[in-house]
Write a structure and sequence with these properties.
The protein has one helix at about 1-25, and strands spanning about 35-40, 40-45, 45-50, 55-60, 70, 85-90, 95-100, 105-114. It is an alpha/beta fold and about 110 residues long.
Length: about 110
């Protein structure tokens, strides 16, 4: 009887741990977030390497508006005033080049690793 109770208790504990793990999982097990600051007409860091699934947040800390635009028009922010932010999630590995469409000399690159 003692062995049956230990087995039952062990099975019950295992089921609780699995249920807790499933409840905690929200589909973004490897998701992370990274920030690109916009200051003094530059993106910082200018080159950012992130794992696939990362959400990048651009934050305008400049005194004038900026627009974050992907070189091949895959994404584009609205005009970001001081303190505004724009987010984009990158799920496919590769290199993404972007710039400020108001100030085209401002460029940056996101390298998405597998």
């Amino acid at each position: 009887m003692k062995t049956d109770m230990r087995t039952l208790r062990s099975d019950w504990l295992r089921a609780i741990l699995i249920a807790a793990a499933l409840l905690a999982y929200d589909g973004r097990a490897n998701a992370t977030e990274a920030t690109v600051n916009i200051e003094n007409f530059t993106f910082g860091p200018q080159v950012l390497t992130v794992p696939a699934g990362t959400t990048v947040v651009w934050v305008n800390n400049d005194d004038i508006p900026h627009v974050v635009a992907e070189k091949n028009r895959k994404f584009r922010s609205q005009a970001l005033d001081t303190g505004d932010s724009f987010t984009q999630t990158f799920t496919i590995p590769g290199t993404i080049e972007y710039y400020c469409s108001i100030h085209p000399m401002m460029t940056g690159k996101i390298i998405v690793a597998p």
